[in-house]
Amino acid sequence: RDAPYLRVTPTMLRYYTGRKGKDAWMALGGRVYNITPYIPFHPGGEPELLRGAGRDGTTLFGEVHPWVNYEGMLSACLVGIYVTEEEGAA
Ligand code: HEM
Questions:
Q1: HSE of 20 in the Cβ direction (CA atoms, 13 Å)?
Q2: How confident is the model at residue 1 (pLDDT cuts 50, 70, 90)?
Q3: In 20-30, which positions are buried (b, 16+ CB within 10 angstroms) versus exposed (e)?
Q4: Going along the chain, which residue ranges are E strands?
Q5: What band does 89 get if pLDDT is binned at 50, 70 and 90?
Q6: Which of 13, 34, 35, 75 is surrounded by the most beta carbons within 10 Å?
Q7: Per residue in 25-84, pLDDT tens?
């Protein structure tokens, strides 16, 4: 199921901060999501959500609300799988 998706490296992810008109991407559990459409709906607000944007938000997410089913909520926002720089170059 992972195979057809884009391979996103940390360098690629860092661009998508959700700031200055850019989309917001977040790595969660080894997958990368475009969370931009979810920003207005986040119960914790935009600044909190964007703390995890442009990077791997897995730990932060788990610290705040491990019970939230992000996989279900963001299934339509899946961009690809999160890989290392080395894997991205391969
Ligand atoms: C609630 C922070 C990512 C979904 C909250 C709240 C905070 C927060 C502080 C509590 C708001 C309140 O009760 O006043 C963060 C941070 C994130 C993050 C720092 C960065 C990783 C996400 C993502 C999703 C999400 C990616 C969904 C895909 C929710 C939901 C609630 C919530 C559903 C309500 C949970 C409940 O009340 O049981 N968030 N959030 N959050 N967030 Fe996030």
A1: 4
A2: low
A3: eeebbbbbbee
A4: 6-8, 25-28, 31-34, 78-82
A5: confident
A6: 35
A7: 999 999 999 999 999 999 999 999 999 999 999 999 999 999 999 999 999 999 999 999
Residue type, 49: L
Q: Where on the phi/psi map is residue 11: left (φ > 0), alpha (ψ -120 to 50), or beta?
A: alpha
Task: Spell out the CATH class of 6-89.
Answer: alpha beta
Which residue's C-alpha comes closest to atom 13 of ligand 1? Answer: 44
- Who lines ligand 1 at CB under 6 A? 26, 35, 38, 42-44, 48-49, 51-52, 57, 60-61, 64-65, 68, 70, 73-74
Conformation bin of residue 36: beta by default, left when phi > 0, alpha when psi is -120 to 50 = alpha
